[in-house]
Amino acid sequence: DAWEKIDNSSVLDGAGTGQTVALWSGSGTSNTLTDAPITVSGNNTTFAGNVSVIGSSKFIEVGSANTGTNFGFIGWNSASKYLFLGNSYNSAYNEDLVIDSSGNVGIGTAEPQGVLSVDSGVAKTSTTFTRIASFKSSEAYAAFPLELSIAQRGNATSGSQSIELQAGHYGLDFDANLVLQRDGGNVGIGTTSPDRTLDVRGN
Q1: Which of 149, 168, 183, 194 has the fewest CB atoms within 10 Å, i.e. the most exposed one?
Q2: Of residues 58, 50, 52, the one with CA closest to residue 79
Q3: What is the rounded CA–CA span in Å between residue 112 and residue 81?
């Protein structure tokens, strides 16, 4: 059957598909209807029941616009079977957080190796001090809250690559309190380059 206007003033042309929503595809006095996705305008829209997005690798976008850096999204990767949460911060679909089929969570990686895997995205040869995770007190940034951070410091020499555990003021760089070297298992306290099994510097 043809679609009809709600006021029944005339019959509109077009054939619809069962359980789809019609889109008035023209403008002005156009009378053509076709199948279309649902667009909801306005605030505080309520759906009395479950909302399903079914299909291969589908996602839901949330933001001020679905272009550029204006939105985030949640979706499903059908091939690898994981749920992801992302952001368009570089005008691309970045899968920033992943929950795989085993319930493991990956941040910065789509292949978590345990309950929680975090990938800093920085090469192991980069000498830049890079925080991987941090925990801080509740003061405002200007009040220099306390921070406990896990960081990496790379080097072209594998024996000098390290993971660092640090305590200090949030957002500020400071010397590592505890350093675990990649090769050799050296541990440093008060130094970022331990040269023996346990290397303690300072008073």
Answers
A1: 183
A2: 58
A3: 13
**For 51-86, how does the pLDDT look when each residue is reduced to its tens digit (9 = 90+)?**
888 888 888 888 887 777 888 999 999 999 999 999
Q: Report how far residue 171's alpha carbon sits from residue 192's, in angstroms, rounded to the nearest whole number.
A: 19
Query: pLDDT tens for residues 28-39?
Result: 555 555 555 556
Angle at 147 between CA 143 and CA 151, to 5 degrees: 135
**Cβ burial, residue 71 (10 Å; 0-12/13-18/19+):** middle
Reduce the DSSP state of residue 94 to 3 states and report it: strand
Confidence of residue 19 (pLDDT cuts 50, 70, 90): low
Alpha-carbon distance of 9 to 85, in angstroms, equals 46
| 160: three-class secondary structure by DSSP | helix
Q: What distance in Å separates the CA atoms of residue 179 and residue 195, rounded to the nearest whole number? A: 11
